[in-house]
Write a structure and sequence with these properties.
With 316 residues, this protein is mainly alpha-helical. Helix content is 78%, strand content 0%.
Length: 316
Amino acid sequence: MLESFSVAFNAVFPFVIYLGVGYFAVRARLTDEAFMDKLNRFVFKLLFSVLMFKNVYTATVESIPTVKLIIASVVGILVLIALLLIAVPRVSKLNNRRGVIIQALFRGNFILYGIPLVTHVFGEERAAITGFMTLIVVSLFNIAAVIILESYNEQSKGIRIGRIFLNLAKNPLMQGCIAGLIFFALGIKLPKFLDIPVNALGNLVTPISMITLGGTLKFKAFGKNRNAILSVNALRLVMIPLIMLVAGYLIGLKDAELYMMLVIFGTPVAVASYPMAVNMGGDGELAGQIVFTTTVVSLFTIFAFTFALAHLGLIA
């Protein structure tokens, strides 16, 4: 039990510290929200594209997961998105909040949680599948997020296919993903003098993006978004991963591949969802609050799921 808690705690709590650094830096007047907003755009426009390139570029053929896991993941994400597109507009009246809520419910923090969690639970050798799953899952997340946020932004006049494709092409995360795919497919290796800064810049994404989010948090505003925040936390961190884990078990997923369903569907909302919402006309305030609360609450839910799976003998 203590080991399971340690895995969850070590994976999640650093994010809480980064948020705290940003929050108190602004309150102590070491910086201000205007600077944080500019830094947020820098992270979105540059650093996230580098991170996406790095994660896709470094995938290996040896890390290819089973066809069953790939199909289960892709079908699960697509079915979840389809259900959300039907349900969320019925309960949320504001267009710019609809896209934020839908994105929050399907888009987990797979990039930043996948490898650490699976490695801690199963070891580096069995965690190899995470690298290739990053390519599949995060690419799907990014494409769906751009389409949904474009369709539900503040100026949205309905779905405009041409504009959606334009925003996909202009989206820094998609650009990084496509560049990484090209390098991966062609077997191109970066020279060391480029590989070092690419890795360093990619590693900056987590602390800087969470610090900027912490710097823009306004706790007084949580009250008006309380119902949305509570609903997203309950669905994203408890109900959806529970359903997906049961589905994965029923189709025969085991050990690391079954745990992958928790990593895909039960991790906190992706950090990238906040700058994307801000830069694409969504409710940035709500997006930031959801990232913050799911990050904190996931400390307990990831532990609970990990402990339960180990206790039931479903992971070893």
